[in-house]
Amino acid sequence: MRIINVVGARPNFIKIAPIMAAWSGHSGVEPLLVHTGQHYDEKMSDLFFRQLGIPEPDINLEIGSASHARQTAGIMTAFEKTLQDHPADAVLVVGDVNSTIACGIVAVKMGVKLIHVEAGLRSFDRDMPEEINRVLTDSISNLLFCTEESGIENLQREGIDPGKIHLVGNVMIDTLLRNRERAAETAVMEDLKLTESGYGVVTLHRPSNVDNPEALRGIFEALNTIATRLPLIFPMHPRTRKSAETAGLLSTPGEHIRIIEPVGYLEFLRLVDCARMILSDSGGIQEECTVLKTPCLTLRENTERPVTVETGANRLVGNNPDVIVKAFSDVMKSDPSEIRIPPLWDGRAAERIASKTVEVLQATD
Ligand code: UD1
Ligand code: UDP
After folding, report:
1. Which residue of 51, 80, 280, 333 pairs with 203 in a disulfide if CB–CB is 3.0 to 4.6 A?
2. In contact, 159 and 165? CB cutoff 8 Å
């Protein structure tokens, strides 16, 4: 039973690590790993393979950066050749990036079963490229694995056969739980001279925040105000660095904002674990904050991960500077120990995915 596992962008590496490990418990499965090359910088890709012990990709499509159409089309063309050269019983894709939908379309059109991990999440915001990728990938998948109850409800509302949908927990949290102690052994806190709960962490990369200079300027204004009360560490995504440079924002960051290169998974996990608060527009970081009980301000109007709000970890604050600063003040007064952990976020999602996949593929043989 050959299963091709696809990764392309930073969050995909974190999600695939426990899945690749779980296949080794199933002797009948031959897992292949395909890297599309959507992310390629050492600090956005290779570092994660090393830190998380992910096997070297069997194939790297080396697509790199481009417009949506060129990137998606490039991945599709290259992945079609991969599937011709390596016929497979199933293709497994994770998350919501361009690599996810590109390989998904190729698989189903070649008659190969498609498995989507992290299915059903919906922001209901079709201006987000990820929302398009999610809706389309789910609509063509044969097996859909959900992280939270809202995913099941969304898929059922869209008319997807309930027999294909399974609530399994969260592979990103599998990786977190496996690596939390290793993260504590890194020297990142000492290197950055940080003390527990004495700082906040910022990440930004959503086009709606960073590609619009006005929006980005407003966010920097809010961060400057916040940083006078809580020093901020800002590992900056390459997309954001380009936009911030163009907008002239990098020459005058606030005194207490430290902009650094993206950091490795273990270092980032440690930074989030010890922070007083996170300010971010990331998808996955909302979930990591929930389990680490570190409050998260999400600089977006919506979230596809509503459970992170329901459990008390996450607040949606958009990108208006006044709203961000007000929410910051509120969260500084809150008690993070009251944050609750969603069902099945227990470190065993990948095992459930592997077992159910084998069962379904054997049954349809
Ligand atoms: C992509 C995903 C997004 C995900 C994010 C995770 C899509 C549509 N977007 O956004 O859903 O949340 O990854 O980080 O799939 N760049 C580099 N080096 C790299 C990678 C990118 O310099 O290794 C720069 C390039 O200028 C590139 C830009 O970042 O044009 C954007 O990269 P891209 O992969 O297109 O989108 P992300 O913003 O990273
Ligand atoms: N992350 C990291 N180093 C960083 C920033 C983020 O290792 O400097 C990790 C973070 O812990 C999470 C993942 O990258 O597991 C989230 O990726 P990102 O925010 O780029 O994508 P999204 O989840 O929004 O798709």
Report:
1. 280
2. no
Would you give the DSSP letter of residue 97? Answer: S
Query: What is the distance, to the nearest Å, from the Cα of residue 22 to the centroid of all Cα atoms in its chain?
Result: 19
Q: Is the CB of 8 under 6 A from ligand 2?
A: no
pLDDT at residue number 251: 77
Specify the CATH number of the domain 2-170+345-363.
Answer: 3.40.50.2000
Summarize pLDDT for 100-151 with one digit per residue, the tens.
999 999 999 999 999 999 999 999 999 999 999 999 999 999 999 999 999 9
Is 2-170+345-363's fold the same as 179-338's? Answer: yes
CATH homologous superfamily for 179-338? Glycogen Phosphorylase B; (3.40.50.2000)
Q: Rounded to the nearest whole angstrom, what is the distance from the C-alpha of residue 29 to the centroid of ligand 1?
A: 31
Which residues in the chain come in under a pLDDT of 50?
none
The residues spanned by each domain of the chain are 2-170+345-363, 179-338
Indicate which atom in ligand 1 lies nearest the CA of residue 66.
Answer: 30
* Alpha carbon distance 198, 27 (integer Å): 48
The answer to whether 33 and 16 have CB atoms below 8 angstroms apart is yes
Written as six digits, the tokens of 132 are 């398009």
Q: How far apart are CA 67 and CA 313, in angstroms?
A: 34
- Ligand 2 atom closest to Cα of residue 175: 15
Q: How many Å apart are CA 178 and CA 181, to the nearest integer?
A: 8
pLDDT at 253: 63
Predicted TM-score of the model (pTM): 0.98
Pairing of strands 314-316, 296-298: parallel
Tell me the CA–centroid distance for residue 202 and ligand 1, in Å.
17
- What's the burial of 69, exposed, middle or buried (CB within 10 Å: 0-12/13-18/19+)? exposed
**Could you tell me the distance, in angstroms and rounded to a whole number, from the CA of residue 364 to the centre of ligand 2?**
36
pLDDT given for residue 271 in this prediction: 98
Q: Of all atoms in ligand 1, which is nearest to the CA of residue 9?
A: 13
Q: Which of 35, 39, 116, 205 is catalytic?
A: 205
**Strand ranges for the chain from DSSP E:** 2-7, 30-35, 59-60, 90-94, 113-117, 143-146, 165-167, 200-203, 232-235, 257-260, 277-280, 296-298, 314-316
Active site residue 26: no
